[in-house]
């Protein structure tokens, strides 16, 4: 990451290949003007189950857009995603997508909680029924279930989200979204219990000002990176952005 910050793209790519991080290695190769290894690493990442990435919006990969291989890799990723989706529990996908849609209205204050809260509860009840019937089999199934419980109202419900996210990571150690959710659910439960969070994923509006909920100072950014959590300084910058005049 130091090489990345210093724009030493070749060194960055070499270290990330050694770390078996093909996606980020592809980004550094692309920045270095080395399209052949960039596409080789990108293909490895896609074949390895790359998900939850909008490749077209990643500025690191912009140098590859004019290469004929770019559209081929996008199509390859889309085909694998479609095939993977067929292996998942369709109802858990639907419940997850409904959960996200209820939160896609923009600012937290714009959510109509009188409408959303009962839907959240109904979704949690249905997810419980699906899990009890053995309807979750894949890492994505557990991730989708975990996200629904992440929006629960009690520490016990958030603990359920954490346990489900950890199960997703156990099934797929490269599931970055599940790793982040495992950290975020742990933080949220601690916040609900009025304790310092570990990772720095949770924010709270206090006296009209968004702040990062107090964080355990012993946790390092290196530990955060292991769980796909941004550095603490980035979280604090995000809180500042939330408070900036619109």
What does this structure look like?
With 246 residues, the protein is mostly helical. The protein has 2 domains: 2-85; 90-243, Serine Threonine Protein Phosphatase 5, Tetratricopeptide repeat. 61% of the residues lie in helices and 3% in strands. The chain contains 12 helices and 2 strands, in the order ααααααααααββαα. It has helices at 2-5, 9-18, 22-31, 35-47, 68-85, 90-101, 113-132, 139-150, 155-171, 176-192, 221-226, 232-243, and strands at residues 203-206, 209-212. Strands 1-2 form a two-stranded antiparallel sheet. Helix 6 (90-101) runs parallel beside helix 8 (139-150) and helix 9 (155-171) packs antiparallel against helix 10 (176-192). It starts with a helix and ends with a helix. The mean pLDDT is 92.
- Biggest sheet, spatial arrangement of strands: 1-2
Question: Structural class given helices, strands, pairing?
Answer: mainly alpha
CATH architecture identity of the largest domain: Alpha Horseshoe
- Termini Cα gap: 32 Å
Q: Provide the residue-averaged pLDDT.
A: 92
In the CATH hierarchy, what is the class of the largest domain?
A: Mainly Alpha
CATH topology of the largest domain: Serine Threonine Protein Phosphatase 5, Tetratricopeptide repeat
Portion in helices: 55-70%
Output the number of helix runs: 12
- What is the domain tally? 2
As a whole number of angstroms, the C-alpha radius of gyration is: 19 Å
Quaternary arrangement of the chains shown?
Answer: single chain
């Amino acid at each position: 990451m130091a090489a990345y910050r210093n724009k030493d793209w070749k060194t960055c790519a070499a270290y990330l290949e050694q770390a078996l991080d093909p996606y980020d290695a592809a980004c550094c190769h692309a920045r270095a003007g080395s399209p052949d290894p960039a596409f080789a690493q990108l293909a490895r990442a896609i074949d390895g189950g790359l998900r939850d990435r909008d490749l077209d919006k990643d500025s690191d990969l912009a140098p590859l857009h004019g290469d004929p291989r770019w559209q081929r890799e996008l199509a390859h990723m889309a085909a694998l995603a479609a095939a993977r989706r067929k292996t998942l529990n369709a109802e858990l996908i639907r419940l997850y997508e409904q959960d996200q849609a209820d939160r896609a209205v923009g600012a937290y204050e714009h959510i109509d909680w009188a409408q959303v809260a009962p839907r959240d509860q109904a979704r949690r009840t249905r997810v419980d029924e699906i899990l009890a019937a053995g309807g979750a089999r894949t890492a994505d199934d557990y991730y989708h279930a975990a996200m629904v419980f992440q929006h629960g109202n009690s520490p016990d419900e958030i603990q359920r989200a954490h346990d489900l996210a950890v199960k997703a990571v156990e099934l797929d150690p490269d599931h970055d979204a599940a790793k982040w959710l495992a950290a975020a659910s742990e933080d949220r439960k601690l916040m609900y219990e009025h304790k310092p969070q570990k990772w720095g994923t949770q924010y709270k509006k206090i006296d009209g000002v968004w702040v990062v909920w107090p964080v355990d100072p012993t946790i390092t950014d290196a530990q955060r990176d292991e769980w796909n959590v941004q550095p603490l300084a980035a979280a604090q910058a995000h809180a500042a952005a939330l408070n900036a005049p619109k």
